[in-house]
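The records we work with from here on pair a chain with its fold. These numbers are not coordinates but entries in a learned vocabulary of local backbone shapes. To see the layout at work, look at the sequence and tokens printed below.
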Amino acid sequence: MKNRLGKLESQFFAYIQMRKIRIVESGKTLQPLGMTRLQEIELFRRLLKGRIIARVRPGLYLVPERLPLGSAWTPDEIEALNALIQDQKGTYQICGPNAFNRYGYSEQIPNRTYAYNNRISGDRIIGSVQLTLIKVSDKRFGGIVEVKTNTGVTALYPTRERTLLDAVYDWARFNTLPRAFNWIRSDLKKKLIDQKQFIDMVLKFGDVGTRRRLGYLLEQEKCDERLLKTIERTLAKTSSYIPFVPGKSKKGNVIVRWGIVDNEEYRLL
């Protein structure tokens, strides 16, 4: 980080802090600061090199609320994610390892932030924040809770029920089966999730394979038969059975009701 700010840099920070600006777009400070376009380009180049600001995309920058003292600055994960998706006029919800850690299913603290969104697919880096963005259709959004972070910004997390649904639906991406089955069993026993709310998530966001697997799991856990039938009614009769634990041997009992081969005893624990 730069030890000292030049005159133009000092004027820039005085201006944005007086107006409590956190996101700056190139061209917006030319007139207020009396800069030329070339001066602005050089200003942002120096600030980026000094790691005092973070680039969201070319021409858009996140700036600190207060200048850091003697060290580089980087936004937190939610500031970076919010700025990127807001710029794209999209929506998001955090998912995967970050949600699993939030609800205690995993003790591992992710070194990147995973988010479903409706604009961008792929990895992005903003400052030192690493984002993995998974583009999904608008109908995939829901089951969200707003969480205030320590920095006062709002993060969009999935509910506990939605997190568990995603762990089964998106098992191949997050490598969560069969672990997620035990998470669900444990939460049901501890009454940390509501049967009806969870089944609502299954019906709204689960594909056929997810509904088959979770229907069978919930039947094993003695869930309300009336609720189980709401899942069963969405499934056509089939002679093509899928393994309860995908990627493992199909050896096991055939569960006709759900179109499942119960191969769970053959999984690697």
Notes: The two ends are 48 Å apart (CA to CA). The chain is about 40% helix and 20% strand. The mean pLDDT is 94.
